[in-house]
Amino acid sequence: MPNSPQVRTRPLPKLRHHKPSGRAAVTLDGKHHYLGRYGTEAARRKYDRLIAEWLANNRHLPKAGSQSGLDVSELLTLYVRHAKTYYLKNGKPTSSIEAIKQAIRPMRRLYGDTPAAEFGPRQLKAVRQTLIDLRWTPQPKSPDRDHEADQAAEPDPAPPRRLARETINKRVRIIRQIFRWGSEEGLLEETVWRALLTVVGLKKGRSEAPEGKGVKQISDATVETTLAKLSPTLADMVRLQRLTGCRPDEVCIIRPGDVDRSGEIWEYRPGSHKNEHHDLDRIIFIGPRGQEILAPYLLRAETAYCFSPSEVIKRFCAQKRANRKTPMTPSQAKRRPKRNPRTKAGERYTRDSYRRAIHRACDKADVPRWSPNRLRHTAASKIRRKYGVEGSQVVLGHAKADVTQVYAERNFELARSIVREVG
Known about the structure:
The protein has 423 residues and is mainly alpha-helical. It is built from 17 helices and 10 strands. The protein is globular, with a radius of gyration of 28 Å.
């Protein structure tokens, strides 16, 4: 994998000698702080304490909410700055950043200039009502390049949509989390955050907010029709995910070194997974049918990704050359590929590129578009009907399964027995 870029950090502000007064001084956030007589141990201790607070608050000195008149807009800015350094995975921001930005937009618009200490349950309910009343129009999907007729036709405008009840509850929880963080950082009194806890979430059937559609199962007939329009590599990814019930991200990052093939049932431990920040282990069990699909892709370096887009493109180009009807001219044979093509295939599929490839195949097969996460939901439903909730939890790696060692070992044995039968 390519080396990650080096992140340059600013040097720490130095403790300097203010000669006119003989005092020690340091400049933080554009303000001079005088720490007593220069060269004394007391000045050094004050400097160390200020720098520690400055670093702990993302290189900014914390403010006291009641004394500094911290308003809601300032609190939101500080929290977003903190979130950009906290919600990172493998050096990249997670989807939590965008979720936070969406949650705070109406809050900043309605109460941006309100003192943060005065933001209470009544204000939180007003923000929630704004989310309930919100109407938004989804952008029309860009037509597939293979469908010229679709490009010529004007897409029908999509009807306005509303936020689902659970989405609104999630955004309210984010707002409460912001005030909890402000209390933890000493920016606000703890009573401000605890007062917001009195606002309970919207209940099903007891609010104007609509219910979400949720993730639906996908029929085997639809999947098989789509597989006929996918490349062999992508088709094997779909088949493997359907058997194991793994997440789309997890099927994209399989490497030979991550698969333990010592037992009858293979155990795949992803290098990265959804709940790793909770210090939870993730094991995906692969049965005989899944092993048959995955085995040809394991004949490569231990750290190479099994499902590679570059390999798919090379195989596609080789097939086109083999099916060529006319001989290649000398000028065509001398042509060299571009050194820096505008788009270059990556080492592995991502969740988005995997989904887009399935959508293109759905369009070619003339079936409704479906996302790969529906394969996981379908597998969970089938296992739950036959083996119960416990079997579904352990095979799919749900975080709510019991984490005690004895129960976990019993769960793993149950998962092996299920996978041995279902694939």
